[in-house]
Amino acid sequence: MTAIPKRQRRRLVAAALCGVGAACLLPIGVVLGARSLLDSSGGQNVDSSGALKIPATPAALLATINDVNDVTSLTAFVLNTSGVGGTIISFPVGTRADIIANQNPHRLGDTYAQAGLEAMLLDVEGALDVTFSVAAAISANDLTGVFSVLPSINVNFDIPVITSNYVMPDPASTTTVKLRANETTLPPQPVPVDNDVFGAGEQVLTPDQISSVLVSKRVGEFEYERSPRVKSVWNGIAAAVGQGLAPEQAQITPITAPGEIPADIGSFMRRVFAGPIQVWQLSAQPLLGADNPTGLDLYALDKFEVLMIMANVAPSSLSLPNGSLTVQIDSYFNDINITHEVVERLNYIGLSVALIRELEGEIKQQTSIRYSDPAIVEIGKTGLESVLGSIKFQMKKQPVQGISAQIVIGKDFVDFITANPELPATTVAPSE
Fold first, then answer.
1. Which of 194, 310, 355, 364 satisfies CB 3.0 to 4.6 Å to 315 for a cystine?
2. At 388, is the secondary structure helix, strand, or coil?
3. How far is CA 241 from the centre of its chain?
4. The model's pTM
5. Tell me: the pLDDT tens digits for 60-100?
6. What is the DSSP letter of 364?
7. Distances from the Cα of 420 to the Cαs of 142, 286, 368, 386, 413, in angstroms?
8. CB neighbours of 296 closer than 8 A, spacing ≥ 6?
9. Which of 267, 314, 334, 403 is CA-nearest to residue 80?
10. CA-based radius of gyration for the chain
11. Can 5-163+200-304 and 320-419 be said to share one CATH topology?
12. Helix (H) / strand (E) containing 157
């Protein structure tokens, strides 16, 4: 299995991968993402007057692996613009990877088993349209190394946590199979044995127990069964750190430069633990029939939700199409359904969303667009107004670097989509 060539980055992938040592190391199904707004935005430091760069929001990828080298969880960590705290985003190991022509659908986790971390990293970056600064696939022992800075956490499991361990049968046992006209005797093969890890209900977990939950996986278990407990673990960690662990407890040193990126996954995660944490679990839909011809435990993400979350918390890590018109969305509604609708409609006419901010303040009646690229005006009547409704255009005197226009959502937009829920016919190809 190979990663899609178009996802190859203009950087040495090896520089993004980290070697992890024991001392410094370190949700899903019909995966139900909570429909509530995140508390802060990665672009919050871009004020309304503009003239600023999108602040640095580096991202890291953590894959946990069990003793038979299966990926048991995938999680993105995004640092806040302050350099401590941030967002933890979990998504299915069984997420469908981008594929090329004539290639059967495959799962992100299966890429690791067949082609290694580098290939899986490229597949995950393709699925999320994000470039990760750090990535690692690590075991329970290594996870415990970084979780050791945490206090005990409270979790609530909806079903018991069970894992399968592989054991060898009686050494004297053999298996005889018939291959064509010949009989072949095979040596004993490992067999899975289920073991209880934790019961259902409320639990208090120590760092090593947190690790054991994230790497636990029962043979034949579906992602939607594992989803709630993975999210419960990250929620428990967020609650335990509160406003953040003290630097000495988190074992971090002061930031010496803006946008400083930790060198390895353990350092990255400890930086996140040193400030307030938001937790998000991406929604996903099980794929069946022609979309899943080999019957895998396979899931499709809601690409507009993915973009909405990443443009909110990790704008500087987004991978946007070359040459596209990029927009910033500002909304005072604090309603994720409205923001999702805006993202989908802008994508429909081929605009790239580069930054999203959920702000506090008075909601204006009319939707306004403050543009720095006149090309936005050229598509205004034929494109933007067909998907957003009535718009007030004005030139932006101090643009944000890399942003063609700032869109401030008004009440008119909500009225418009209430009366015109269907997207119009268009010949503009949506961005991939």
1. 355
2. helix
3. 21
4. 0.86
5. 999 999 999 999 999 999 999 999 999 999 999 999 998 87
6. P
7. 53, 29, 19, 10, 10
8. 94, 105, 106, 107, 110, 287
9. 314
10. 23
11. no
12. strand 153-157
Amino acid in position 432: E
pLDDT digits (tens, 9 = 90+) for 214-228: 999 999 999 999 999
> Using CA atoms, how far apart are residues 198 and 288, in angstroms rounded to an integer?
31
Half-sphere exposure of 322 (CA within 13 A, CB side): 2
Query: Which pair of structure tokens corresponds to residue 73?
Result: 């969880």
What's the CA gap between 229 and 214, in Å, rounded? 8
Instruction: State the fold for domain 320-419.
Output: Alpha-Beta Plaits (3.30.70)
Q: Where are the domains of the chain?
A: 5-163+200-304, 320-419
Residues ≥6 apart with Cβ < 8 Å to 416? 388, 389, 390
CATH superfamily entry for domain 5-163+200-304: LCP protein (3.40.630.190)
Q: Regarding beta strands 86-91 and 71-79, do their DSSP bridges make them parallel or antiparallel, or are they unpaired?
A: antiparallel
Coil, strand, or helix at residue 394?
strand
Residue 309 to residue 114: CA distance in whole angstroms: 30
